[in-house]
Amino acid sequence: MVWFGWCVILLAVLVSGSGNTLVEGANVSYDGRSLIIDGQRKILFSGSIHYPRSTPDMWPSLIDKAKQGGLDVIQTYVFWNLHEPQPGQYDFTGRNDIVSFIKQVQQQGLYVSLRIGPFIEAEWSYGGLPFWLHDVPGIVFRTNNEPFKLYMQNFTTKIVDMMKAENLFASQGGPIILSQIENEYQNIEGAFHDDGSRYVNWTVQMAVGQNTGEPWMMCKQDDAPDPVINTCNGMRCAETWKGPNSPNKPSMWTENWTSFVQGYGEDPYLRSAQDLAFHTTMFIIKMNGSFVNYYMYHGGTNFGRSTASFIITGYYDQAPLDEYGIIRQPKYGHLKDMHAALKLCSQTLLYGNLAIEHMGDNQDAYVYTGNAGECVAFLVNNSSKEGVMLFNNTSYTLPSKSVSILPDCKNVVFNTAMVNAQVSTRSMQPIIRFDSPQQWQAFSEAVPQFDQTSLRSDTLLEQMNTTKDTSDYLWYTMGMQTNSSEAQYTLKVTSLGHALHAYVNGALVGSAHGSRKVTNFTFENTISLPTGINNISLLSIMVGMPDSGAFMERRSAGLREVLIQELNFTNSQWGYQIGLLGEKLSIYTDEGSSNVSWSQYQNPGTLTWYKTTFDAPEGTEPIALNLGSMGKGEAWINGQSIGRYWVSFKTPEGSPSQTWYNVPRSFLKPTGNLLVLFEEENANPLGISLDTISIDKVCVHVSDVHHPRVNSWKVLEHYRWRPRPRLHLRCPKSRIISKIVFASHGNPSGDCKNYSIGKCHSSNSQQIVEKACLGKRQCSISHTTKYFGGDPCPGTPKTLLVDARCE
Q1: Residue 123 a catalytic site member
Q2: Could you tell me the pTM of the whole model?
Q3: pLDDT in tens, 727-775
Q4: 374 classed as catalytic
Q5: How far is CA 638 from CA 386, 685, 760, in A?
Q6: Of 2.60.120.740, 3.20.20.70, 2.120.10.10, 3.40.50.720, which CATH number belongs to 697-806?
Q7: 123, 255, 634, 680: which one is catalytic?
């Protein structure tokens, strides 16, 4: 009866959080156990969604999906370089409208964790710092430096005052319950010696002095002074983190990486749903964790030139919500189930007493008991092998590296290694093909010569300080007189930039590039130099600004040394052109496009602009450009950049790191959409297509192999928690289940990637599943022998595996 009453309380909590309940004002504090909101300790699940990495029309759906996935909080950085592109000139419109984003979070009943920084890293250009800071006299970033502290405080105050003016802090009735100052400063603090610790102390005083009424935090900052909370970032904080630096501060995980950042030439990092669930649960029970933020929950798109060095345009596409906002299963569903299970235990976790029972090698039982007799247990198998644990006179089978959650110390409602959520497969289908030469027009970018340049220097200029981040491109040009009859010379160029195209007398003589891990490279090739003046034109290209490290204001890019044969031309007379002519004329816009003479497309060429038009496809499914036939460059839709592409930079397996590039439907108009690409290499635009992105395959694999016999199913199901495995198939909106490819109730072998019928199989599996599911958008099937008309193999644990198609 005690446990039953406790479930009633939990049900009321869960129901009160449903719907679009507006978050109302709250008093937020903390103790050594958790954040305290209106006098109540809380276990909070949070997810990072960055407002400029999606579009305003996407925000409501992303927030709603996060809420349905069991999140309580949305976390976002504040992007200084977007909001203050020039000193004192601010932009809070469109994708930069942070106030609108936060208000939409509030409208859907969620809290906000605001990471002001204002240095953020985030694989974002210059770590979010505006490049104009570089030119402030005497400035040194992120240390006890008066010019930097002045501008940092000014922007922090600007953001805090905006939030206060809109009543967005929790103490004012808003959703912001937590703010962050600085970001992972401990990584570089030692480089500044005593000024590093002085800066940390000043930063805390400055932030707390903003009087927001809510707690502040610093991630990866073990020496964070009181009252700021130090937090953990990483994949396994239960194993790698020392914990709070004071017994009066709660354990908080600011970045639980759902995947990992991906650079061009690299494969995606695929973190499994099981690994995420295991380490999240371990953090909560081993570290007394009470706040976990998934970084990212939705990564989105690095539009324009916003990425850091070598980072692909799609950001954390393997997150629970993919780049397009589509639910990625089973990661989303498995975490949702885990959130629900942990919330069933939250009161006893937060207010109960913990006892740890060692049950064997790498096996422990974490048992929490309450004053009224409540009991919650977490059975941990930290071994790489499956194990059996005898707990409370009951035998529990535990998969390897897993935690079983027992809200009543008897019944397993969730195991971190047992995934019952469906597996969904994303597909891309061409809807518009740009395969006709008549569709395309071309404009060739001119290769400048020394005599055509006005910016001159007697040495090789550093690229970032020259371009001021106005372009990825900087031309280095020189004229070389040759009197020898020898025609062959060796050209050797050393560069700190990211890519290089070398031209002699207007003809391409070769290219080279670095990588995310090794950014300096050397270009070397044999060139022909006839007698007379020869024009050497070297196009140095950056693929994103640096985003981290000490003394970032000193970082360099561009060419460092140029040798022709044994002659060093580094300190010779050089002429420069910043950016491209097409950029200067904005030919990616309707107006700018009319300022140049386009020719009908005939053949691919290097340094070429391509343009075409298309009508918006029908429907609401996400769409993307398939640029698999292209090389390297940037793409624009109606004047808005959808980001850099670099399809020719292959992974070790020979595939592009990214082929599809997100085209938000909000960028489109009904007809006559302008598509413009700048292509650096000799690539073919006739292979480009506009594709729809959808889920066309769903598969579910549920099993009772690791679930003990349960005596309280009816009680649990009455309170909307169904621990017994049950198969749920669900197609996206406007699609139905059109085909059952495979169905087996028994002991099918394999999983959703590769399967076959086992020795135990209900012969009517296919028929029963088809009857329950065909023609429906979603269906639910009971995983019981009764549902399938009998037990084909008594005594054998049963599995149900169904693979279906959506259309």
Answers
A1: no
A2: 0.94
A3: 899 999 889 999 999 999 999 999 898 999 999 999 999 999 999 999 9
A4: no
A5: 56, 18, 58
A6: 2.60.120.740
A7: 255
